[in-house]
Known about the structure:
Blueprint: E1 3-4, H1 13-26, H2 34-47, E2 51-55, H3 58-67, E3 76-79, H4 85-92, E4 97-100, E5 123-129, H5 138-148, E6 151-155, E7 163-164, E8 167-168, E9 175-179, E10 192-196, H6 200-208, H7 230-240, H8 243-261, E11 267-268, E12 276-277, E13 283-287, H9 294-303, E14 306-307, H10 320-325, H11 332-340, E15 341-344, H12 352-363
Parallel strand pairs: 1-14, 3-4, 3-5, 5-6, 6-9
Antiparallel strand pairs: 2-10, 7-8, 7-12, 9-10, 11-13, 13-15
The structure holds pyridoxal-5'-phosphate.
Amino acid sequence: MKINVTRTSMPSFEEYCEEIRDIWDSAWLTNMGPKHQKFEGLLCKYLDVENASVFTNGHLALETAIALFNFKPASEIITTPFTFVSTTNSIVRNNLIPVFCDIKKDDYTIDPSKIEQLITEKTVAIVAVHVYGHVCDVEAIEKIAKKHNLKVIYDAAHAFGVKYKGIGVGNFGDVSMFSFHATKVFNTIEGGALTYKDKSFKDKILKLRNFGIQENGDCIAFGGNTKMSEFQAAMGICNLKHIESCILKRKAIYQRYIEKLSNTKGIRLPNIDKNLEYNYSYFPVVFDGYKFDRDEIAARLAKHDIFARKYFYPSIDQFECYKQASFKGDAPISREISKKVLCLPLYAELPLEAVDKICSIILDN
Ligand SMILES: *Cc1c(COP(=O)(O)O)cnc(C)c1O
């Protein structure tokens, strides 16, 4: 049996069919229909945020989050290269310049102690990533942002359902982006959302999401089409009913990995901050001085039809298009971790016996 790094959690076929029945009755398939409205409301409740706007995918939600602020072209945004390329592309595609800050060695999020030295008169914002669902040092980042008058945008693609000190993670910064892609903890097939405190963003997003067209038919911004369809929203409504049990199942698998792999020299396991209510989204293992290196472990697993993922690899600054543009900033820790990290298979329906097999291949016993 082939095991991939993830497998999408789905409602039963019947449950989804029941949810989409009224779409047939109304023949309203997209453009902020009733499913879309209902799903946004349910999301606000689950994420414990005041405002949420849903999108056809996470990447376009993030592009829109950045576009909300009308930054002057060629302004600089401080971010990290230890992320999925979507984060950095969304900066560049807004005609802004990413400046790479290094990450912390303990949870791979942006290192706040290295941010200020990168700030110039061109800096307008910080785009930080809650890597693997581990929450950035939101307090330190807020302090720096206030002092230098910067906007803060969080890529919370990995952090659906996470709370920090009892606060939903979507409440930090000016805007947060969640991804509901099929490979994430929670999915709407493709999909994403922005959450934010400033109510005035709601209307702005409504227009940017729909070509920039406003009520009187006039076009007030160069918007694209980034709306979520009713079928995606229906999937979200179904999956939200199961999210808590899904996270609990992930937790059991996560704990089994910890149990089997802890106290092994050269294998560094993830560590959940005591202030977090975590979503068990990923199980990243860093092989550092172990008898096999990361690539050898991945190859050994692949021989057994088990496909772990080198995630994130490479560090974004090493991608051809980013090297060519020679963006500023240096991130040696990001480069080092990206060469040593491997995300092991983790999904709600992964049997514990499979976890045991994966661990025994890694431990070579
Ligand atoms: C998945 C992901 C995105 C993009 O989200 P999509 O819904 O796939 O467009 C952005 N950033 C990070 C960190 C991600 O993991």
